[in-house]
Each structure stands twice: as C-alpha cells, then as structure tokens.
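does this look right to u?? guanosine-5'-triphosphate version
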Amino acid sequence: MTKNQNLLSWIDEMTKLTSPDKVVWITGEESQLEELRKMACESGELIKLNQEKLPGCYLHRSHINDVARVEERTLICTKEKQHAGPTNNWMEKDAAYAMMKELFKGSMKGRTMYIIPFSMGPEGSKFAKVGIELTDSAYVVLNMAIMTRVGQKALDSLGDSNDFVRGLHSIAKLDPEHRYICHFPDDNAIWSVNSGYGGNALLGKKCFALRIASTQGQREGWLAEHMLILGIENPKGEVKYVAAAFPSACGKTNLAMLRPNEYYSSKGYKFWTVGDDIAWLRIGDDGRLWAINPEAGFFGVAPGTSEERNPNGLAATQKGTIFTNVVHNLDDNTIWWERLDNNPPKNALNWKGEKWNSDEGTSGAHPNSRFTASARNCPCISKEFDNPNGVPISAIVFGGRRAKTAPLVYGARDWQHGVFLGSIMASETTAAAAGEVGKVRRDPMAMLPFCGYNMGDYFTHWLEIGKKLGDKAPLVFNVNWFRTDEKGDFVWPGYGENARVLKYILNCVEGDAHKVDECIGFMPTSDDIDLEGMDLTKDDLDFLLSLDKDLWREETEGIKAFYDMFEGTIPKELYEELDILKKKLG
Ligand code: GTP
Ligand code: SPV
Ligand code: MN
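got this back:
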C-alpha cells in the first residue's frame, strides 16, 4: 500500500518487538471491515444487533476493569519534567521506552497486528495530519474506521514523508496494574498497552488529536483544543460558528447537536454540527481564527441521550454504530441505557453481561458507556464538515459543571481576559475518567488531562495567538448549565434551551446586546435572555445570573494556589488579570 521507507522500517521494528502471528493492512474498504465484523462476532468481541431496527449496529462489552480513561497512568514522556509541567504525569523518555518495551515484548503473539493508516482532518487540508496505529484489537480497528478517515487515501497524502504520528497499541493482558498510555511528543509517538477502551486505545482521539497535536500546535503556531464546533444559522440564512470547550461528560456532544425549541425553530434558526469533541484552530489568510474537526465520528456518552434531550445524537446512532457497555435488550436484540426512555427492558443483560432488571435499582448501562457513530449519519451535520479550510470562529465558549459559583453566562472583556477565564475553569469530575465523581477540580480550557506540554507555556501560546489575531479575535464567554438550587436540582433546563444563551452570545458578536460590566467580566441583563415560551421564571433567571462574591473571593485563593504550582511558567498577564479580579471583588 506504500513505499514509504520511514513507515515500513518502523512497522518492521514494531513487528519484531510485538511478534504478531499475522500482519494486516487496513485499506478502509467496506468489504474488509465487514470481514472484521464477522470475525469479531465469532470471537465474541461484538454482538450483532437487530439488523432491521439497527442496521449495521453492534454491541461490545469491555473488560469490567477497563471502562474509562486512566489519567493516573497517562504519561508525558520527555527528557525534562519541565516540559510536562505540574499538571501532567511525567516519565523520563528513555525510562518510559524501556518500561514499555518490556510490556510490548511478544504482546501480540498468537494475534493479528492491524496497521491502520488514518488522517485527522480531510485529506489534503492544510490542517490535516496523518497517523498510523498498530493494534491487536479488531474492536479498535472498527472504531477507528468510524472515528477517523482510514485507509489508502491517508497513505497517499503522506507519500514519502516522515511526518506521521506513530501509534502502537496492544491490549496485551488487559492488566490494570501494567496499563500505561505513554506520549513521546519529541518523536510524535504514542505507546498504549493493557487497555482496549476509548481514549486509552483509539489513539487518533485524545492521544494524537489533543496531547501530541497540542505540542505540534505550539511548535507550528496553531491550537488543538477539546472543543465542539457549532454553526448557528439566523433567519436570513447567515451562519456563524462557535467553538466550545467543556470538560469530559459536561455537554459538548449535546450542545454540538442542539435542536432548538419550537420558539427558535419557528423564527427560522438552524443549528449545524461541525464537531462534538475536538477542534484544530489556525489563523487564516484573512487574519481570523478558523477551525476544523479532525475526527469523522462521535464517541458519545450514551446515558441521557434521548429523543427529548438529544434527538440528533440519537438519530446518528440508528445505523452503523458500535455501542459499548450499554444494556442488551434480549427481547428484540436491541440496546437501552438510562434515560433513553421510561421503558427499561424486562428481559435484559446489563453492561457486564449479567441478567438485569431495572427494579434492582442498579444502573444497567455503565455511566461512561458510549456510542461510536459516523458523523455522516447525524441529521444536522454541517455542509462544511469536510471543508478543508474549516469554518471561521466568531466566539469561543468555556464551561463546566459548577453547582454554585459560575453564572449561566458571562463574557470576557478582551482576548487576554478570555485566556484568563479559560485558565481559571473548574468543574466537577465525571465518569469519563476513572476515579472519584463530583469533585471540583481546576480544568483550564477543559484541557487538564489532554495538554501535552506545560500548561503555563500553553497559556502563553494562547496569548500569542491572540496578539496575532488582534481585533479579529473571537469573543470569549463562559457558560454553566449546571447551577443547582438548595435541593440540588439543576435550575436551568439546558439541552435545546441552551439556544437562548447562544442567541445572547451571537447578539454580543453582532454588537446588539447589553454587556454589563461586572467584576468577573461582562454579563447580560435579564432582558437579554429571551424567556418566551419557557417555564423558567424571571426570579430563576436572576438567580442564575447572580454572583456570590464571597464564593468568588474564595475562588481567587484557589486560582492563586493553582498558578503558583507552576513555579514561574504562568505568564504575568494572567497574574495581572487575577489582581484585577481581586480588586473588583473588593
Ligand atoms: P465527552 O464525550 O466525555 O467529552 O462528553 P461531552 O462533553 O460531549 O458531554 P455530553 O454532551 O455527552 O453530555 C454528558 C452528560 O451531560 C450527559 O449525561 C448529558 O445528558 C448531560 N448534559 C448535556 N447537556 C446538558 C445540559 O444542558 N444540562 C444538563 N443538566 N445536563 C446536560
Ligand atoms: C472524553 O473523555 O473527553 C471523551 C471520551 O471524549 S474518550 O475518548 O475516552 O477520551
Ligand atoms: Mn471529550
């Protein structure tokens, strides 16, 4: 499939290390993928679902100890610890290679090594980059074939170049004690062993498109971000694009596929999905910020996805989808998850494959169960999805899960203040990563687990991009859908109603909204958020837009402690912004 000597000699070396019985090149052709699905069904890796109701759909159950990203075992491996900074787990590069070589030695014995050539971004785009993943998991191949652009075209665009990301993956023994996801940014290499799940194993996603790509972006002058990209079309047919960064399981996929309520759709607003998880952003020839989605599919959180909350997401899963760790409905050989509807199946297996009934009070699907669906099957996919030039970004939105501190929406005075807002993000942890759920942690730009280099330098890089953008920089906002009342219930209804907040953001872009100067940034008046046709009261909205200055004063202490951890790499501009905030809070 290729004569690229750099690639062939690397594959040769990796084959000698891992000793597979067989080596198979993935061409991307449907016939080859179909053969793999058949094999995976025979081995029990996949279960073929009801082909009338869910054509081309399969169910997979991961090992019960392998259900989410493992941040503690995700390492940045460089010569100096300073490169990784205080927020990453670091290992000295040579020591990491030595440790990993032991774990990979003979790990594919008795198995097939699949060579997956893939492109992140439309082939031929100046944004796009090629990767090769070597893996012994057919499940990984089938997921990568949905999530990325796989096959010969990727090799053709690589040609003889040595500029490709080298991904080596083996499920080995799925041993959690020896599970490591190592990144070597100096070599554009990723070695992942003993996991078969999600971001640990689909190396195009977080490992390449964020951790490695963020370091490439720093070197080459662009940004790799944990952001959805959404197009908003006004009644005149003009489309403006926003990019939004929320931490894992905080609502990116849902916002990216937003279906507006009747009030907005009757006025002629339409929403178009460009991406739901990752954005690569570059300054275009016109001086504006442009973005592509480097992926080709969605690896979306299943629980909570429903006709009511995310009809477009649900529709995208109705064909050609791999479901992982959801409930298997044995009556009609379909699937189910919590809050899909109010009718949990009676004759069913839970995500572990055990007989299960919702009356038991346990959840049937794992909270981090997922669907892998092709972007092409999403009813609201943007016509710009494959545009090699990407889309121009008018606003950047940060957000997270904050029960108390953050208001529904506020804006940054300028780019520098916007970088500050991104840098002070914090959110409650979710099931997307192994560990405690619901604990507030600092998660700047939703990149804490995904930035491949020192986050202090990352903030400097953001500031530099801003200097180049000048007055063409997008406006920056922060949103919070998750503020709770004294009973702990969410006050803002979220989902389709989030269109109302996006409308305010667009009005700001167009210079047609109130921007009331507050200590944390600018805010809308309660008249700026349109409540027509919704049962939220004006009092509720006032509560959602209110600020608890005592909590914010406490917050500034946490921010200072976070910055100080970096021992000098935090740019002085951010300390200045922190001082301004403190003064304004009094
Ligand atoms: P990753 O794929 O892990 O990066 O997650 P994500 O950011 O794409 O989150 P996703 O859209 O899958 O949502 C995660 C969870 O948050 C789901 O259970 C959703 O139902 C819930 N959620 C999403 N949007 C909202 C919202 O506006 N309000 C509330 N209350 N919950 C939401
Ligand atoms: C996330 O955790 O942000 C995800 C899922 O999008 S994973 O692919 O596992 O990283
Ligand atoms: Mn994500």
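DSSP finds 17 helices and 31 strands in the chain. idk if thats expected tbh
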